[in-house]
Please model this.
Amino acid sequence: MNLQVVYCNHQTARLGVRERIAFANEDQLARAYDELRNRFPASEYVVVSTCNRVELYTAQEKAEDAPSHADLARFFSEFHQVPLSEFFDDLLEQTGPEAVRHLFQVASSIDSMVLGESQIVSQVKQAYECATRSQANGPLTNALFQRAMTVSARVRSETKLVEGRVSIASVAVGEFGKSIFDRFDDKTVVILGAGEMAEETLRYLKNEGVGRILVSNRSPERARRVADEFGGEPRPWESLDDCLAEADVIVSTTGATEPIVDGARFERIRKRSRGRSVFILDLGAPRDFAPDVGEVDDNVFLYDIDNLEATCERNRRARVKEIERAHGIIEEETARFMQDVYHKATGPIIKRLRETWHDVSRQEMETLFKKLSHLDDKDRKQIERSVERVVNKLLHPPLETLRDEAKEGTPHGLLDAIRTLFHLRD
Amino acid sequence: MQLQNVTLFCFFASYVVALALEALQLLKKLRINRWAALVFAGAGLIAQTAYLFFRSQAVDLPPLLTSGHDWLLVLAWLAVALYIGVELWNRELALGIFVLPAVLVLIGTARFVSDVPHQELGSLYWLGLVHASLLVLGFAGTFIAVVLSVMYLVQHRRLKSKRAAPEGLHLLSLESLARLNWWAVVISVPLLTLGMAIGVWLLVIAQQTPVSVPVNRPDFIVNGLLWVAMMTLFVWLVSSRRRAGRLVAWRTMCAGGLLIVTILLLKLLGGGGIHGSGAAQRAADGVPAVSRPDMLVSVRTLQRVPQ
Model:
């Protein structure tokens, strides 16, 4: 069995790179899964694509079916029409236990920009569900992602990682928003997009006492739903410019594949906002606001996800002990998961060997009992038990060796030897 | 140590230590550093109060009317009192790093400005006191506006360059800084205007006395021009729809900074006296100038000055 992840995240690649190979919405992901199936039919896949990371998990029964790092990089390049040279160095690879450990770290938010953030759990869960809908995953990725959820829950309950500022919105508003504005109760907040990120940001801003909320989304139903939930006003996507002209705070979380507002458009919008300060938090990947929007005038403050890195690093340094505890849990769970995986790999062989030997012993006993017809039931039972014990004792050393070897990884050599020695067929 | 022996150096040194501790906060934020800075600044403030009090007692004049030296020290005293007050209210705020250097400049300038007591005001005593008080409060407001503008520009630069705030450099929000700056200008300019108006009135009255002061003195003209600059800023701020922003901060910093720097230069180059022309006054009054070779100018030195 083989597990692999190729990924780039906020630690390895700038947002400018990540957004070019990201999967912005489910339609794009479904097409990606179709393409992957065509290229590597013997693999299972799950893609985790968020504003901070693009990760492709693959799993195969046989190691020889695994696509190489270069194969997967080529897939990203051709699917997104991005030259390989622009991101290949940023696209890292982990295999086996390292891949498992990586997913556990991601799901536990150890690998997140905002340590302890809860949103990554649902993002990983959504990624897994999306793969399930596209029938891209399989038994191994099922086991892996389900375990990742369990590990995440364990880390959250057994450490204090979730205390303090644990959302991107809280970090962004705390670090930049509160340095621009003194209070939010007299401000107009415009939310572009109506996904989970938008909801989480609104939840935080609502706690900060934000006064007026306008929600604009391509799907008016979703905009209305989010607006109703947070006491805001839904606004049609067509009147986006009017919305932005009224805004003091703009939070953008759409799944657009191209920037929706560029410098020239925003300059026109600013003419209607009397030079008021505006705080724009672009949480989209790809970004929703072109970088030149931030240069329109002195009172436009535009931030994307990468601008939060320094603050998050400071939070991380303050919680070193909790991170160590979380790493301990993840190490333990990785070892346990790998053991289960290897055990599953050796399980069929053990079962078959045991069945074969017991079949042989049963056949031999039947022949013996026909010859010794004077034996009563009690004697027969006694003989059956003795033979069974002999078979088990003979099986014990090879099976124990197999189990021991499986703790370190799938013992392919030993399994082949057992198959050959005892004429076991798949 | 007896408080009568307090020298300028005592509180200058205290403020230097407080500033050093505030600067250390930028490297590593420690609560104890801020407390220590406040203790040193508080000690300096007590020493400065004693210094001003005993000088005032010695010449029987309030510090504002004693001399240009004392007037500058009162301005510095107000700035330190503001710093301590604000820090006690919000210990996270990095105010000292902006206020204390300016305080040191004021005290340093005062060191070189004559501490010879002002001539007897006689019947103009109360009017003179109101004039000096309004001006010192107006200058204090301008000083605050300049400090707020500098803080605004630092904060604005950080936010535009998308950098996280250094741990020890917590500033108010741009919105708060702009609002406070607006109020500082809007309050200080009328105070300066009123102070100057009373000054002009004093001039007119002085013309009818034997100690007449020439109206066309350069320091009066420069002060008048600076007042026009501040008034322009005031009118622009009050009438403008855009009350915040980098431009406001720049204009405030330039106008207020120019006012403060010019006043300091006038006091320095003018050789002392309450309006930076002490030499002329001393000559007129027959008061000998006191040379001070070092910074240890104590109240005892002042007491030796013939009245």
